[in-house]
Amino acid sequence: LLDSLARSVKHFNKSEVECLIKLFDRLVAESRSRFAAVGFDRNMFRETLHSAFGMTDDMIMDRVFRIFDRDNDSCISVGEWVEGLSVFLRGTLEEKIKYCFEIYDLDADGYITREEMFQMLKNSLLKQPSEEDPDEGIKDLVDIALKKMASTMCDYDHDGVLSFMDFEQAVRDENLLLEAFGPCLPDIK
């Protein structure tokens, strides 16, 4: 397993892969999950994202789980763990663009719609008690994000939908747009 993963994963050397396997085994051993024999279930993975990377947004953590769980069996195997962390922690800009797009494309149809942007921003922003309708502020943010992305892309029809190519071009022109709809990558720390 170690040799196979060390060959297939681009961004970790063999000793790092070995450490990640050991960490995986330790975390799984501490778990009381019904999946403990084979890997992480959704709750255990979310706890790991929260404790190790400070992620708090439930929707984002569920989306990260889905990206890691490549075979869609509701369990993250050691291979999916190491391969997912390779992109999550050390991926190239191209890999991170693809990863973030997959996170934000909630229905996996190849587009990030205005509604998906709204849902992502609504879940990632702190709720502040006020007299204003918070959804109106979020709609304004979606409009601002679309205008910013439209100014850097070829979204001539201004239909409020971002294709992968639109998203990729916007991020290449302005790297800060990579996580425009919610934090889904670890910070530099």
Automatic annotation (TrEMBL):
Coiled-coil blocks: none
GO molecular function: calcium ion binding
Domain EF-hand, residue spans: 56-91, 92-127
Keywords for this protein: Calcium, Metal-binding, Repeat
Alphabetical list of Pfam families matching this protein: EF-hand_7
Domain of life the protein comes from: Eukaryota
Keyword presence, Calcium: yes
UniProt-recorded name of the protein: EFCB1 protein
Record lineage: Eukaryota, Metazoa, Chordata, Craniata, Vertebrata
